[in-house]
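Worked example 3 (structure in, sequence out).
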């Protein structure tokens, strides 16, 4: 049997009435209704936190840059020259 955790929520009578009505109209228990709504919102918050939105122009420029051949920087060129020198000595 799966373990369960208890979460308690306090609310005013008006919100309780609204939640009970909505649960009944959706053929759910009050607990099921509240959990489903809370889970949906939690998934939305997590998804938004894990999503980076950039302007389309930036994204297009990024894709264009990734399509271009790599241009080695100075330290990379120097390391390649040093490797060439070491290999040609042996």
């Amino acid at each position: 049997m799966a373990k369960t955790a208890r979460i308690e929520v306090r609310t005013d009578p008006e919100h309780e009435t609204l939640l009970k009505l909505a649960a009944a109209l959706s053929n759910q228990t009050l607990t099921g209704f509240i959990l489903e709504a809370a889970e949906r919102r939690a998934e939305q918050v997590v998804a938004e936190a894990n999503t980076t939105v950039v302007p389309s122009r930036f994204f297009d420029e990024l894709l264009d840059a990734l399509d271009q051949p790599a241009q080695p920087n100075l330290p990379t060129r120097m390391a390649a020259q040093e490797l060439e020198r070491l290999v040609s000595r042996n």
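Notes: The mean pLDDT is 92. The two ends are 69 Å apart (CA to CA).
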